[in-house]
Amino acid sequence: MNLNPRKVNLFLLFKLPSAFFCGVRLKHIDSTTAKVSVKHRWINQNPFKSMYFAVQAMAAELSTGALVMQSIQASGKNISMLVAENSSSFSKKAKGKITFVCEDGEAISKAIQQTIATKEGQEQWMNVIGTDEAGDEVSRFSFKWTVKVKS
């Protein structure tokens, strides 16, 4: 099964329904980049009438997680994946359509190849930038993914 936006978004419906109902959607994925968008709506807003930080985090994490899943699938190995740590910063109210982009697909692929070669767990930080429709940065996320070959 090749990962594509349609399959990942269907996965969200059944496995991560809160993300699905908040409007988080994978829009693009290739070997290096994943783009996820979410539109500010009533269901995902905070009391200040902008997008709730947790909704932004779900979208940002999906952009990294989709790249991890894709790399694991390409390896053909049984590999576990887990977010071990994360950090975030917010620079502007998130209103309208927010797009989260991660361009660390090559880095996570290298970490997966390393865990296959050494049979030891590997850690890889993946970075995401969220921008609004005007192209202004609204948030920045980093996720430390751990990957390890299952025995």
Give a verbal description of the structure.
There is one protein chain. The protein has 151 residues and is an alpha+beta fold. The protein has a single domain, classed as Roll (Thiol Ester Dehydrase, Chain A). 36% of the residues lie in helices and 34% in strands. The protein has four helices and six strands, in the order ααββαββαββ. It has helices at residues 5-15, 17-22, 53-75, 105-118, and strands at 25-29, 34-39, 79-90, 97-102, 122-131, 137-149. The protein has a six-stranded antiparallel beta sheet. A hairpin with a 5-residue loop joins β5 and β6 (137-149). α3 (53-75) packs across α4 (105-118). The two termini are 23 Å apart. The model has no long low-confidence stretch (mean pLDDT 96).
Strand content bin? 25-35%
Strand order of the largest sheet: 1-2-4-5-6-3
How would you name the CATH homologous superfamily?
A: Hotdog Thioesterase
SSE series: HHEEHEEHEE
Helix content: 25-40%
Q: How many whole angstroms does the radius of gyration measure?
A: 15 Å
Tally of structural domains: 1
- Structural category: alpha+beta
> Whole-Å distance between the termini?
23 Å
Spans of at least 5 consecutive residues with low confidence: none
Shape: elongated
Largest sheet features: 6 strands, antiparallel
Short description:
This protein is 36% helix and 34% strand. By secondary structure, it is of the alpha+beta class.
